[in-house]
């Protein structure tokens, strides 16, 4: 019988920001019952308390897992971002602690693409301002500033999962699709890659942003880039709030250089639904403001819950790290009839030799062994006879450069 480092009911899973019930169901089906569930993000102080004894933490885009927060998480084994973006986690700090971070890279792709497609039609028709006027008792029946999407040019910046989906959907409306990406990308449908962002912006009737938050994308759309956009064109941002200089955008809209915008993400977002939303874009009728709900559909949230909880449970049960965003990726078979040991260490030459020598000296037989590394850490997985597992764990813990070890269920 396999030995356990920790019984499943002792493994605390902390789920924040109202991740979907499907995640709880996956954990419970896998035998993990010690689940602390919060419908919203926690305050910084409450987070430090809750994370202290948590083995797994599940968050969405709001919770910031900084190096300081992670340093309070003495027992943390794995992190799940129940969304696409992982910029809210200090990935390098998690890696140094030997903690893999998982996300759901495509579960809400379609939801974002559909929202943006709808916004393109609404903005080209000038619906937001007509809607606002009607709510105030006005009547703006006019074809002025109202256009079909057919024949217009969509410029996609960041031609990844969402950008490509959006491109395909926009082509079905008869739009011409152009894109800018730092990588050479296979154009889907009739899309065309343009190698200068400013050139793309000068050609497009609608520009939609789908880049991740990185140091390079911080305020990549500022005064100069907005000035390249065609007069009367439209900007959509459902990527990250840091990508656009929001004051520059407000100015371009007020000067009527842009005809409208749809913004789902903001440099500063309210921490909860009861906090005030403050933005220079408030009060501009030609701007669709949405509260970071690009991926918030029933379908996406349910799928995300299943996917990310599944990855965390699999890592906990058998050590698999496939698709981890900051960690060596290892796909592992089940380890029935043996005990599995995980050894995470600082990546330096000779670790495997040290392990194998130590095991040989103690007569510990290794049934299977896997090693994968990144520049900074190494991840060794070994299956050994269950009656030798406790001794093997002691040997592993004594290896110089060890970050953490686990003996699996
Ligand atoms: N509003 C929401 O609710 C919501 C939902 C999902 C994702 N997002 C955001 O959208 C982003 C994109 O999602 P995705 O799934 O398409 O990601 P992705 O990784 O599949 O695609 C991102 C693309 O951007 C490109 N890129 C990176 N840096 C660039 C730069 N400086 N200039 C131009 N291109 C650059 C990459 O090469 C890649 O092709 C996510 O990182 C996330 O932050 C927001
Ligand atoms: O990165 C993402 O997937 C989106 O920004 C969605 O984040 P959310 O789960 O907080 O809605």
From TrEMBL:
UniProt pathway annotation: Amino-acid biosynthesis; L-serine biosynthesis; L-serine from 3-phospho-D-glycerate: step 1/3
Catalysed transformations (reactions): (R)-2-hydroxyglutarate + NAD(+) = 2-oxoglutarate + NADH + H(+); (2R)-3-phosphoglycerate + NAD(+) = 3-phosphooxypyruvate + NADH + H(+)
Enzyme class: oxidoreductase
Family membership noted in the UniProt record: Belongs to the D-isomer specific 2-hydroxyacid dehydrogenase family.
Protein name: D-3-phosphoglycerate dehydrogenase
GO MF terms held by the record: phosphoglycerate dehydrogenase activity
Lineage: Bacteria, Pseudomonadati, Pseudomonadota, Gammaproteobacteria, Alteromonadales
PANTHER family, alphabetized: D-ISOMER SPECIFIC 2-HYDROXYACID DEHYDROGENASE CATALYTIC DOMAIN-CONTAINING PROTEIN-RELATED, D-ISOMER SPECIFIC 2-HYDROXYACID DEHYDROGENASE FAMILY PROTEIN (AFU_ORTHOLOGUE AFUA_1G13630)
EC code: 1.1.1.399, 1.1.1.95
Residue span(s) of domain ACT: 340-409
Pfam families documented for this protein: 2-Hacid_dh (PF00389), 2-Hacid_dh_C (PF02826), ACT_AHAS_ss (PF22629)
Entry function: Catalyzes the reversible oxidation of 3-phospho-D-glycerate to 3-phosphonooxypyruvate, the first step of the phosphorylated L-serine biosynthesis pathway. Also catalyzes the reversible oxidation of 2-hydroxyglutarate to 2-oxoglutarate.
Organism field: Shewanella youngdeokensis
Keywords: NAD, Oxidoreductase
């Amino acid at each position: 019988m396999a030995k356990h480092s920790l019984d499943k009911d002792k493994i605390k899973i902390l789920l924040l920001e109202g991740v979907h019930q499907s995640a709880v169901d996956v954990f419970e089906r896998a035998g993990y019952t010690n689940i602390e569930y919060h419908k919203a993000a926690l305050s910084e102080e409450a987070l430090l308390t809750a994370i202290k004894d948590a083995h797994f933490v599940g968050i969405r885009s709001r919770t910031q897992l900084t190096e300081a927060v992670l340093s309070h998480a003495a027992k943390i084994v794995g992190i799940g971002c129940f969304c696409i973006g992982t910029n809210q986690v200090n990935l390098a700090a998690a890696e140094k602690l030997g903690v893999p971070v998982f996300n759901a890279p495509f579960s809400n792709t379609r939801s974002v693409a559909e929202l943006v497609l709808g916004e393109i039609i609404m903005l080209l028709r000038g619906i937001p301002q007509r809607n606002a006027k009607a709510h105030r008792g006005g009547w703006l029946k006019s074809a002025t500033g109202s256009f079909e999407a057919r024949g217009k040019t969509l410029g996609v910046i960041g031609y990844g999962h969402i950008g490509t989906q959006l491109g395909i959907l926009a082509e079905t409306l008869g739009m011409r699709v152009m894109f800018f990406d730092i990588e050479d990308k296979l154009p889907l449908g009739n899309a065309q890659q343009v190698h200068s962002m400013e050139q793309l912006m000068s050609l497009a009737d609608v520009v939609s942003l789908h880049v991740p938050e990185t140091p390079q994308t911080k305020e990549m759309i500022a005064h100069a880039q907005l000035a390249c956009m065609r007069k009367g064109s439209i900007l959509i941002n459902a990527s990250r709030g840091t990508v656009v200089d929001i004051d520059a955008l407000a100015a371009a809209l007020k000067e009527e250089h842009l005809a409208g915008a749809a913004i789902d993400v903001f440099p500063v977002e309210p921490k909860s639904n009861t906090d005030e939303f403050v933005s220079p874009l408030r009060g501009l009728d030609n701007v669709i403001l949405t509260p970071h709900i690009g991926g918030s559909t029933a379908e996406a949230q349910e799928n995300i819950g299943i996917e990310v909880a599944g990855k965390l449970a699999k890592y906990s049960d058998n050590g698999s790290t496939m698709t981890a965003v900051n960690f060596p990726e290892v796909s592992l078979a089940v380890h029935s009839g043996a005990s599995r040991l995980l050894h995470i260490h600082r990546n330096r030459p000779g670790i495997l030799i040290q392990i194998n020598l130590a095991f040989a000296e103690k007569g510990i037989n290794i049934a299977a062994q896997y090693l994968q590394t990144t520049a900074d850490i190494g991840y060794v997985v070994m299956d050994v006879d269950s009656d030798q597992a406790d001794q093997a764990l002691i040997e592993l813990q004594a290896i110089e450069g060890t970050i953490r070890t686990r003996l699996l269920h």
